[in-house]
Amino acid sequence: MDKSVIKELCGILGKEHVQSAPEDVALYAYDATPFAPVARPDAVVFPGSAEEVASVLQLANRVGFPVVPRGAGSGLTGGARPILGGVVVSTQRLDRILKIDSDNLQIVVQPGVVTEDLQEKVEAAGLFYPPDPQSKEFCTIGGNLAENAGGPRAVKYGVTRNYVLALQVVLPEGTLVRLGARTLKSVVGYDLLSLLVGCEGTLGIITEATLRLLPAPESRGTLLVVFDGMEAAAGAVAATFKAGVLPSAIEFMDQASIRCVEEYEPAGLPTDAAAVLVVEVDGSPPETERLAEKVKAVMEKSGARLIRTGASEEEAEALWKSRRAVGPALARIAPIKVNEDIVVPLSRLPQAVSGIHELAKKHGVKCACFGHAGDGNIHVNLLVDTGDADALRRADLAVDSIFELVIELEGSITGEHGVGTTKQRFIGMELKPEAIETMVRIKQALDPRGVLNPGKIFPSP
Ligand SMILES: Cc1cc2nc3c(=O)[nH]c(=O)nc-3n(C[C@H](O)[C@H](O)[C@H](O)COP(=O)(O)OP(=O)(O)OC[C@H]3O[C@@H](n4cnc5c(N)ncnc54)[C@H](O)[C@@H]3O)c2cc1C
After folding, report:
1. Residue 421 Cβ < 6 Å to ligand 1
2. Ligand 1, atom 44: closest residue by C-alpha
């Protein structure tokens, strides 16, 4: 990148908020995707206002360089990694909670606020922000909005999109717009708000969000349910809903996940079990108790070997901490962990989990499955042994077959991690060419010079 551009960036942001030394920018070539980076950014900027973000994008359009938005870099599909160099726009300094409006159950935040910090502030006010990606200790609201992040509680409360009322966004050409309204309903014009949520930072940089809150549930109950059969555990998920219970979470862990996390973040999970479900119910104390009893009955009928109920708050938190640690625990034993997040209709879960394990075995790859089973969303982790030169190729083949199975089961190839760069080659398996073409035309209309997060989602022609 020409030095004059760096100089202009320093003019916009102040030189202390622009980094361009190779050792400073190297980190920003990575996110949580376990593959070697494609390109280093030429510069990383840390704007302090939406106007500065707008000026950076205006400069990018005038001079012609890529701009890549970035929150915490915890994305798992390469969305925040530059592939053509250019400028990374970090939201690190845009990290303020601007307002909690308890009367209207709303919160106004900047994009760099860490999700767990937001949740804690909201809980202190007796309110509840349900979206709970398992990276919440470090991921940002901007990244959650761009990926439409989900989490265990999506099963009852929905995903990030369901909590967005209004956004301030800088569009790719540098125009600052406000979308949505501070009301619970608004149907004026096209729903551009929904288009921006989940666009993986390709249609705009979110600089402020007004999010909806809920009253906090009065109580929660957590059950640990142990199964000797993986399919029985998966089958118990649909059976729970069929019995008329809407839990606030149902998480699944297979044996490989249980064993790995027990070594890393022990929570007393039985390492001889084929699978466990962690089920959470919430409501008033009598309602929570009633739901827990109903879940227990369904699980017994579904063949559970052991059901632990009545966990104290500390025990429940230890269980959730252990669940959140599954991804990092697997990464510790397999530095290359091909991580997919497939979704299937609930009734197809047993076929999906057994089919995935069979396909991994067929291709000679170790596999661990865990995730948000209540949504039919399973994180499939293919563990690549770096000492085995052919293992990555076999894992790639396994992914192809797993996605074929998922489409056959009327599922989707990604429930929450997005497409980024790692799933580009697969989107044609799920979307018809006409749908992809329509999306590409929307991208071209909003970003005619192709400056914002280029090379993401859509395969190059
Ligand atoms: C251990 C672990 C557990 C995880 N668990 C979950 C889970 O349960 N559910 C889930 O959904 N995901 C999960 N993830 C994936 C990831 O944490 C989420 O996708 C998260 O939303 C990314 O937030 P981030 O701030 O790290 O964004 P980044 O990784 O920095 O960016 C992600 C994408 O958002 C774009 N972006 C970032 N900020 C903005 C902005 N202000 N405006 C526009 N675009 C922007 C980037 O360009 C990029 O395309 C997990 C990841 C890890 C490592």
Report:
1. no
2. 201
- 59 has pLDDT over 80: yes
CATH architecture of 334-423: 2-Layer Sandwich (3.30)
Question: What's the length of the chain?
Answer: 461
What's the CA gap between 69 and 17, in Å, rounded?
15
If one residue of 114, 115, 129, 139 were mutated to test the ligand 1 pocket, choosing by the most ligand atoms within 8 A of its CB, it would be 139
How much is the pTM?
0.96
> How many Å apart are CA 281 and CA 384, to the nearest integer?
36
- Count the Cβ atoms, other than its own, within 10 Å of residue 4: 9
- Assigned CATH topology for domain 219-323: Alpha-Beta Plaits (3.30.70)
pLDDT at 461: 67
Ramachandran area for residue 33 (φ above 0: left; ψ -120 to 50: alpha; else beta): beta
Token pair in block for residue 461:
């022609």
Give the pLDDT score at 450: 97
Mutate to test the pocket of ligand 1, among 49, 129, 134, 159 (most ligand atoms within 8 A of CB): 134
